[in-house]
Amino acid sequence: MSNNTFIFLRGLRFHSPVGVLGQEKIVGNDIVVDIRIGYPFSQALSSDDVADTLNYAEVYEIIKQEVSQSVNLLERLAGKISDRLWQTYPEIASIDLRITKSNPPMGADGDGAGVEIHLINTKTGA
Q: Which residue among the candidates 25, 64, 80, 101 is catalytic per the annotation?
């Protein structure tokens, strides 16, 4: 069986003090987080045991904690989230993370602006 297994969380909405402008730190911004994590949960396919997979409720709590802290850049927030996940779950093979600021203060009419990263854990052999 292949070990290309993933968990994902989509459309996580937060209000966060992320931004370069002083007003953004005070008022905050609405952001949306989407994450896809490569994780070897093949055993859970037959065991039906949460211990054999990555608990997405725990992943959510890590993201929620990191989003609540003030940073200037979405890039830094993405780094903090991915670092914390790898520290907590070293078996993670990859992280695809998208963070979108819903209403960036740039005078544009759009659905948002953000960052997207794709990281591979070379220690897992993925």
A: 101
Q: Which tens digit of pLDDT belongs to each residue from 31-66?
A: 999 999 999 998 888 999 999 899 999 999 999 999
What DSSP string runs through 20-44? SSHHHHHH-EEEEEEEEEE---TTH
Which residue shows structure tokens 């969380």?
9
HSE of 100, CA atoms in CB hemisphere, 13 A? 14
Two tokens, residue 66: 């990191």
Buried b or exposed e, range 79-99, using 16+ CB within 10 angstroms? bbbbeebbeebeebbbbbbbb
16 within 8 A of 68, measured Cβ to Cβ: yes
Active site residue 64: no
Query: For 74-90, what is each residue's pLDDT tens digit?
Result: 999 999 999 999 999 99
Q: What are 28's strand-pairing partners?
A: none
Mean pLDDT along residues 1-7: 74
Kind of pairing, strands 29-38 and 94-101? antiparallel
